[in-house]
Amino acid sequence: MAKSISISILLLLLILFMSSLSLVLSVRSIPTDSDSVSTTKQESPTPTPWPEQFHSILSMSYNGSFEIIDLWYDWPKGRNFNIIQKQLGKLLYDLEWNNGTSFFYTLDSSRECRTIHFDVGILRPNWLEGGNYLGQRNVDGFLCNVWEKVDFLTYYEDVATKRPVHWVFYTGRAAHVMTFEVGAVLEDSKWQAPVYCFNKSGEDKHPEFHSHAAAHSNLITAEETAFASSFSDSLPANF
Ligand SMILES: *[C@@H]1O[C@H](CO)[C@@H](O)[C@H](O)[C@H]1NC(C)=O
Ligand SMILES: *[C@@H]1O[C@H](CO)[C@@H](O)[C@H](O)[C@H]1NC(C)=O
Ligand SMILES: *[C@@H]1O[C@H](CO)[C@@H](O)[C@H](O)[C@H]1NC(C)=O
């Protein structure tokens, strides 16, 4: 009787010893894990800022429709231009100023123009700073570093040349960068919205623009609102 009790106690002690050992091991494994996490973070590359001036041709797709965007980014002059050719459709001009005013217009006989005031100006060259690094992936045949601006877009930069290759908005609208000419500048005379953009009666006919921009501001940061406007993601489908 006394012998079996002492064997039970011995077993109990053994179990206690084993479990405390595994506890010690698991406690020790925690700092090891966080060490490896911070090491990976330190190794994360930072996204390359945009050049202060560039021209890029973008091939865009969204929900089965396609367009080409001629993008002229001009940070020193506080302006950004998207010239948008919809497939077998309209040619649209989206001219954005750093004071928050954007003009969306056509230059054909329809003479359409919408003026939108955003709370923020155009994207800063370092707008991608603070993005969440997701590692490397192959996209469009290029090995890319990938960042995500939370809930807004995923951005792919070529590892070898540091040029942007591709980005995808949270809406699913996707851009493929076809050309990227650093330093290219569009002549001043082209940055002129047509007179019918300055007709008061033609302004603010589309209050949904404002609510859309406001909705964006609530969901995402000011910078990202500007980005949304930069890439005409906020344009209503009927324009
Ligand atoms: C996507 O395209 C289909 C077919 O043209 C259309 O019915 C649908 O409303 C579109 N969805 C969005 C979110 O635009
Ligand atoms: C912003 O700048 C553009 C270009 O100079 C101008 O046409 C527009 O009226 C300005 N907007 C405001 C709100 O000052
Ligand atoms: C402004 O718009 C109104 C109504 O669309 C039009 O009758 C008028 O001629 C326009 N004025 C200018 C200067 O374009």
TrEMBL record:
Q: Which UniProt keywords apply?
A: Signal
- N-terminal signal peptide: 1-26
Quote the biased-composition stretches of kind Polar residues, using this chain's numbering.
32-45
> Which InterPro entries does the UniProt record give?
At4g14100-like
Segments of this protein annotated with the region Disordered: 32-51
- Output the PANTHER family linked to this UniProt entry: EXPRESSED PROTEIN, TRANSFERASE, TRANSFERRING GLYCOSYL GROUPS
- According to UniProt, the name of this protein is Uncharacterized protein
Q: Which organism is it from?
A: Protea cynaroides
